[in-house]
Amino acid sequence: MILDGKETxxxxxxxxxxxxxxxxxxxxxxxxxxxxxxxxKPSQMYARFMxxxxxxxxxxxxxxEKSEDATEDDVKKLIEELNQDNTVTGILPMMPLxxxxxxxxxxxxxxxxKDIDGLTTTNAGRLFTGxxxxxxxxxxxxxxxxDYYGIQLEGKKVVxxxxxxxxxxxxxxxxxxxxxxxxxxxxxxxxxxxxTKKADIIIVAVGRPQSLTADMVNTGAVVIxxxxxxxxxxxxxxxxxxxxxxxxxxITPVPGGVGSVTTTMVIESLVKAGKQQRKK
Length: 280
Ligand code: NAP
Known about the structure:
Elements: H1 5-25, E1 31-37, H2 41-56, E2 60-66, H3 72-84, E3 90-93, H4 103-107, H5 121-128, H6 137-148, E4 157-161, H7 168-177, E5 181-185, H8 192-196, E6 201-204, E7 222-225, E8 229-231, E9 234-236, H9 241-244, E10 250-251, H10 258-279
Parallel strand pairs: 1-2, 1-3, 4-5, 4-6, 6-7, 7-10
Antiparallel strand pairs: 8-9
Bound molecules: NADP nicotinamide-adenine-dinucleotide phosphate.
NADP nicotinamide-adenine-dinucleotide phosphate binds at residues 138, 161-164, 166-168, 185-189, 192, 205-207, 211, 226-229, 238, 258-259, 262.
C-alpha cells in the first residue's frame, strides 16, 4: 500500500483546525514567528510557504528577517525579543543559516517552550528522558504516518538509517518509546543489507538517493522514506522507490510522503506550545 502523506496531513488538519477554533473562543490565536536570516532562496520560499500554511489555519504568522551580513549577536537579540513577546507562540528558524553563523549558538537562545521544531538541547533532553516537550516536526511526521495507517510498532524490528540530531536519533527514540526494537545504522555500519533485510519497518533518512534498494528489503516490510533530493530537476527520496515498492508491504512516496506531513506538524507544535504557555 502507498502510505499517503497528503491524506495523513488532511486528517490531522481537520483535528487541528477544530483545536484552533476552540482556542480562539477562549480569546487565544497562536502566532508563528518565522526567522529568516540571509538570502537563501529555498529558505525564502519555505518561509513564504509557511505563511500560507498559517493563513490556511487562520492563525497569525510573521517573517522576521536579518540580512546575510547580520552578526550572531544581531540574531540573538532578535530571538530574545521574540522570546519576550507574549504574542509570539512559536519560533521557527529557517535553515541553513548564512556561512559562518553557528547554528548551535543561535538555537540555544530560543526559549524551549517556543522551540516548535524541537531544536534546543532542552527539548532533546525532554524527549530522551520521556518528559513533555516540543519535538522535531519531521520525526513526528514519520510517527504520524505510521499511526494514521495503524502500523503496529510494539515488538517490531525497526531499522533507522541515519543518526542525525534532527531526524535519525529523535525518530529512533520515538519508536523506542512505543516499544519497538530499534537498530540505528549510519555511514560506518557494516553489512547494512543484513540488518535491513531482517526489519519489519525501515526508516530511511540518509540524504542520498538509492540508499535503500530492493535487495535490502524483506518482503512485506514497511518503508518510510524521509529523504528529499533533487536529481536532474526531479525530487526523489533516499529509497529506490520503483523497485522497493514491488517488495515492500507499505511505502511512502517522495514527494507526497513524509514531507507533506512535516508542515502540519509545525502547526501541531504551535498549538501544543500555545496550550503549554496558557497553563503557565
Ligand atoms: P544528515 O544530517 O546529512 O544525516 C545523514 C545521516 O545518514 C548521517 O547520520 C549519516 O551517517 C547517515 N548515512 C550516510 N550514508 C549512509 C549509508 N550509506 N547508510 C546509512 N546511513 C548513512 O541528514 P538529515 O538532516 O538527517 O536528513 C536526511 C534526509 O532527510 C535528507 O535527504 C533531507 O533532505 C531529508 N529531510 C526531509 C525532511 C522532510 O520533511 N521530509 C525534513 C528534513 C530533512 P554519519 O552520522 O555516520 O555521517
